Fold this sequence. Notes:
Layout: E1 4-5, E2 13-19, E3 33-39, E4 47-52, H1 62-70, E5 74-79, H2 103-114, E6 119-125, H3 128-138, E7 145-149, H4 159-175, H5 188-193, H6 217-232, E8 240-245, H7 267-274, E9 281-286, H8 298-315
Parallel strand pairs: 4-5, 4-6, 6-7, 7-8, 8-9
Antiparallel strand pairs: 1-2, 2-3, 3-5
Helix pairs in contact: 4-6
Amino acid sequence: xxxxxxxxxxxxxxxxxxxxxxxxxxxxxxxxxxxxxxxxxxxxxxxxxxxxxxxxxxxxxxxxxxxxxxxxxxxxxxxxxxxxxxxxxxxxxxxxxxxxxxxxxxxxxxxxxxxxxxxxxxxxxxxxxxxxxxxxxxxxxxxxxxxxxxxxxxxxxxxxxxxxxxxxxxxxxxxxxxxxxxxxxxxxxxxxxxxxxxxxxxxxxxxxxxxxxxxxxxxxxxxxxxxxxxxxxxxxxxxxxxxxxxxxxxxxxxxxxxxxxxxxxxxxxxxxxxxxxxxxxxxxxxxxxxxxxxxxxxxxxxxxxxxxxxxxxxxx
Length: 316
């Protein structure tokens, strides 16, 4: 594997993971799909952590890497196909018809990290926090534990929305999986975190040309299938830490109070769904937490990191 200077986070290095078995869709440009592995330095310790991002996201949180490194772990971030550093002009951003397809890049990353480390802990945010538990259920004993930051393990919305989402999405997906769903669009989350909107963070805009990150029927169908598997129980045996904001605010209209809430997911439903992940669960609710808890206000994220550190010291 060839490591080069990372083009996004100064001082980090980056390597591509070729995915020769990854399925392409009509209109994709020529060439293999790839994933990316990002790290601050070559291996130094025997313990490692692998981080997985959420929907329409990429890795840029150097402060998260610094925190993990302070626990005595080598930090790595995995970017999935069609995201971030892997997304090229003409690709269907974020597209996947089955979340199990991501086993290709997760297995490759785990093998690469495992060659230099004795234990690997996983960390997933939002959609990454759904993908990783499903992977762990299929690959028991590959990781020593998992930290979930606002994992998307249940659907937000009204009772009617949640009842209708599955049948409608399946029907549309069977007719045309890549159909874009006409969902309401209000991105209060970006306003709460991006510096240009008064937030704290300079977040890179991904190279998403054309349709960018739109919700397609087949992708949402894959996510809902993952939710159904969680509801049935994943039976994960290793320790799990789930961290959620203390409250959600899913209003369409912006309010400054959204800078202290999850504006993306229904945290009450996520808390209830967490018990289906495995038998050894620690659940922490964070007052003032954003959807991505590690992007919360400084005093809030200090508390988030303290909870993570305490759990790592106890169980990893």
